[in-house]
Amino acid sequence: MTTMIELKNVSKQYKEVKAVDRLNLKIKKGEIFGLLGPNGAGKSTTIHMLLGLTEPTEGEVYVGGIHATTRPIEVKKRVGFLPDDVGFYEDMTGLENLLLTARLNGLKEDMAKERALSLLKQVGLEDAANKKAGEYSRGMRQRLGLADVLMKDPEVVILDEPTLGIDPKGIQEFLKMIRTLSKEKKLTVLLSSHQLHQVQQICDRVGLFVKGKLLAQGDMESLQKQLFDDYSVQYKVEIGTTSQNPEEELNKIPGVQSVVPQSDGTYIIDLKQADNGELARFIIEKGYRLFSLEKVSYGLNEIYQRYFQGGETLGSS
Ligand SMILES: Nc1ncnc2c1ncn2[C@@H]1O[C@H](COP(=O)(O)OP(=O)(O)OP(=O)(O)O)[C@@H](O)[C@H]1O
């Protein structure tokens, strides 16, 4: 599949600060990639290099196969950028703002209006099309920003902390919209955020960024494998038994690493490998009643915690 964004061994040095340190990253067409990291991790610097706004000290940056440093104008034509706070002409309506963007991008007037109205509908601003942008709420501005970015029909959309300041319901709607638009239009999306649960919701892949370094990247499962060197699979079971010491018996399950009783009466069983039905069979053969059995997976939350706690050592490898 076509690679739309590629960073090859990219570093950016600001005097004494190394904002980005030997970053290698490939994002495929149609993919939603989340660049996740705390403030100061280097996310904005990376985005600015992709947009050709700042040059890397070392390495190469390509967007749609175009060298971002030497051909920034061509990159700009293909990339839509949504900063965390979009600037609009406050006295102009949402529709007028979009039409202005269309003119600046050389779109024909009739086509521009058709596209603007269609986009306003897609981002749920149909009823606010003729309202002044200055009267839009924060969430509405971001949605108008997304429509504005899509006016020039970009192949790549870059969103820098797009949900800052939006209320929780607005965030859900906004993220869902990005996902739908990306999948419908085969848009490649790079989204920066320090909000892990948001990234988790819509991204196909996530890159964990700290102190200019990409510590790990991949989908949830591969992140788990990369970050949890003692990778294991955990199951939560709820059983009924008259046995005096079920914990000891559960410890005899083949491949078991640990059995930890929980305060709610359930057990967390840690296995070396994913269960293939053995767990339930063992429990039933022991004569226990099995009320429930569920796989416990590490969420991005745990991964994030772990990466902050162990960030130094993970990053230095
Ligand atoms: N123009 C600049 N001159 C000097 N240092 C800079 C400049 N821009 C960024 N930095 C430094 O580079 C590092 C990375 O900053 P960057 O803004 O890329 O991080 P970030 O992950 O986007 O964080 P935030 O979410 O706070 O914007 C920080 O230490 C920052 O102080």
UniProtKB/TrEMBL annotation:
Coiled-coil zones: none
Gene3D superfamilies per the UniProt record, alphabetical: P-loop containing nucleotide triphosphate hydrolases
Highest taxon in the source lineage: Bacteria
Alphabetized PROSITE patterns for the sequence: ABC_TRANSPORTER_2
GO MF term (any one): ATP hydrolysis activity
Species name: Melghiribacillus thermohalophilus
Keyword hit for Nucleotide-binding: yes
Keywords linked to the UniProt accession: ATP-binding, Nucleotide-binding, Transport
Name of this chain's protein: ABC-2 type transport system ATP-binding protein
Entry similarity comment: Belongs to the ABC transporter superfamily.
ABC transporter domain location: 5-236
Record bears the keyword NADP: no
